[in-house]
Specification:
Helices cover 30% and strands 26% of the residues. By secondary structure, the protein is of the alpha/beta class. The radius of gyration is 21 Å and the shape is globular.
Amino acid sequence: MNSGRAIGGAPDRLAFGGGQPLRGRLRLPGDKSISHRALIFAALAHGTSVITNLGTGADVGATARVLAGLGVIIASDGGAVVVEGSGVEGLTEPGDWLDCENSGTAMRVLAGVLAGRPFLSVLSGDASLRSRPMGRIVEPLRAMGAHVDGPDGATRAPLVLRGDALHGIRYELPVASAQVKTCVLLAGLQADGQTVVVSPAPSRDHTERMLRALGAPITVDGLAVTVTRGAPRPFEMAVPGDPSSAAFLAVAAAITPGSEVVIEGLSANPTRVGFVTVLKRMGCDIELTATGEVCGEPVGDLHVRASELHGTTIEGDEVPNVIDEIPALAVAAAFAEGVTDVRDAAELVVKESNRIGTLRVVVGKLGAGVETRAYGLVVRRGAAGAAAFASHGDHRIAMAMAVAAHALPAESTVEGWRVVASSYPEFAHDLARLSADDTS
């Protein structure tokens, strides 16, 4: 029985199941976080940049369309994306609202770019994005001299930005957030003086690594990042595979007996592969081997074998670097002996869905014992033969349930599958490719 079979001709409801071993080698689409930044940094550079293996999800497409709305020339050339950058001063006033669709990264990061531009722009998105918190970027941008308006004091989108001269600030993030950090740093590249962003804990550092590799005026001292006025240079880059997407396939291999999978050319950034450490702590036979570096980003191959898992605790500084992978890890917990306790993860509430509440519902359908708390959840091993799952409008919930369903002995369904297009539209196809009885 192949994974990812459409039910009744409706591609929004897919069937998975049968517990076929996953075997083989796979190279994933480009990392979503790096892809967003590659497009934006190319637009801020003076000259032509060429990007290959750009992420294929709708979120990355939204960033490209917003940049095009600001006058950036972006074209496809075979398997490459070519960006003609004219520097931040080359951006032009948009003729309409800029639609970030469902991408929080697009909205929060591009707000930092637009905060210093001498024109009016409006960043909006779909209903889900308009409900997500934006005050966390508005506060530092206003402190730098930007004019930002919006509903409820600009605590949510749409955000109306009237660009002005910016000045550098020292900003201590209330919580570790790569999106907020990047927003302030990109505003700082347009500001007088120094801009210093201090994080309370490590978070994704793609911005720092890439800007430093591209010659921008940036320094890193522990959890403090400093920028002055300047710009990255144009570049050529093959975007490494997305580790957040890899986490779901890694869990699928770990919980499906007889599986052995290698995922090649993956981003091995230490702030992105915390799930490897967690799975290894749960008893998973998993190894990440370094193979090189691209634009300051380490790259490696991930090797995963089916394993007998046991529960663990995920907490503290580890959480920011696995926050997007917790739906996959919750599924691993449902197939593991003992108890898995996820703490310090209140940020899950403001993702594409309230993932604490959503995971209680969907992981509970695996027969697992799930207790939810304001800051996280506790999962105890489940036992189910089949189930009917819903995505709850959340791409990572949909992929997590596909992973669980694939490992179950009987056919299960995932309703609302189209949301996966925001990050990894090829997921069902790639899961099927790795299935031992797949011949495609």
